[in-house]
Amino acid sequence: MKNISSRAMAILRAVASGRAEITCSCEPDVFIDGLACCDQMTARSLAHAGLICPARPGAVGHRVPVRLTAAGRALVDEPREAA
Prior knowledge:
By secondary structure, the chain is α+β, with helices and mostly antiparallel strands. The chain is 34% helix and 22% strand. It has three helices and five strands. The chain has a five-stranded antiparallel sheet with strand order 3-2-1-5-4. The longest helix is centred in the N-terminal third of the chain and has 11 residues, at 6-16. The radius of gyration is 12 Å and the shape is globular.
């Protein structure tokens, strides 16, 4: 995901700060600060791209903490150019 959107970066930053949860599912939902993420398609694309993943196992449909993968961490830590 070289051309990552600002919204996707915001989700990644929320995950990095420990404010997010994910449902254990093949089509996971992401929750930030306890509320459903406003863009589940982007959240799911981050999971399918291997940038975020559950921090621990859980039953199907249950919420668990979400963490950045190494690839997700690299994106968050990468310096961003000013627009």
